[in-house]
Amino acid sequence: MINREDVVQIGQIQKPHGLQGELAFSFTSDVFDEVDIPYFICEIDGILVPFFIENYRFKNDEIALVKFERIDSEEDAKILINSPLFIEKKFLSDDISDAEIEGDTYYIGFKVLDENDELIGEITDIDNETENVLFLVVNEKGDEYIIPAVDDYIIEINDDQKEMKMQLPEGLLDMSKAEDAGE
Prior knowledge:
Structural class: mainly beta
Number of helices: 3
Shape: elongated
Radius of gyration: 20 Å
């Protein structure tokens, strides 16, 4: 039996692709392409079920197509629509970081501190729709800030404590807050 603590979600099945049982899935991490895995795991009615891979290929930067053994028609494939897609952690090498596995969503829930260890807020969402990735940070008062996820601003990341220390340009937080207020 596969336990939830032994797997990591890498995406979600979207829909059948074609008539031969191939499925399109969105992925939050392409770490599965860096390791040799014989199967993906889908969640069906709360149970983690392994499906052996015949082949897979990337359609674009967000979608891949997979053909599972014994899923040979569009009708067979329909049972997996909207199923979360997992791989077992045992297939991952130790040098692959959690951030690589989970992609952008890894940093949601991290506390953002300034260079003086003062709390700015918590990352509640990540916008990667633009060329520059942005952190949406909300403080204890409910104020929202949009902070560019720029390596030059990040001083330190503590994965264990889920904290990110940043040195932001002077006035960036005021400017971000003023935009939200419509000023």
